[in-house]
Amino acid sequence: MLGWVITCHDDKAEELLSLLEKKHGLLPQCRAVNFWRGMSANMLSRMMCDALHATDSGDGVIFLTDHPGAAPYRVASLMSHKHPQCEVISGINETLLGKMISSRESMSSPVFRNQIVALGGPEVTSLWHQQQKNPPFVLLHDLYEY
């Protein structure tokens, strides 16, 4: 089963998890990490690292964030490069997550990523989708042999 780490500004992450659990029951391998104003990126990173390890059963973890480019998204992006089968999604909401709950058990992390972005509309994106728009920087001297 894919783990979920819901990480948003203020208390939105806990609110989302609470609403989802009221409708769908207890969600195993799910954690909420709130990013409060004034919190350091280091503290956020530690909290998200704990949540990552608590939710990962070996099938992968999906970081679900509220705003692309904001601190929770950036920290999740850095963490995803170090852990296989991690995806970072931004622009999430309760309705979208409710539609994706059952998919956690049957989909791989890349398939899940593509499905949630397709269902979410233009405000939902992923780190992978953003990287496809902006390929990695390559130094020109790396392209030529001397």
UniProtKB/TrEMBL annotation:
Which branch of life, at top level? Answer: Bacteria
GO MF, one example: kinase activity
TM regions (residue ranges): none
Gene3D superfamilies given in the database record: Phosphotransferase system, mannose-type IIA component (3.40.50.510)
Alphabetized InterPro entries for the sequence: Bacterial_PTS_sugar_comp (IPR051471), PTS_EIIA_man-typ (IPR004701), PTS_EIIA_man-typ_sf (IPR036662), PTS_IIA_man (IPR033887)
> CDD domains, per this entry?
PTS_IIA_man
Among the GO biological process terms of this entry, one is:
phosphoenolpyruvate-dependent sugar phosphotransferase system
The entry's cellular-component GO terms read: cytoplasm; membrane
UniProt subcellular location: Cytoplasm
Name this polypeptide is given: PTS sugar transporter subunit IIA
- The source organism is Citrobacter farmeri
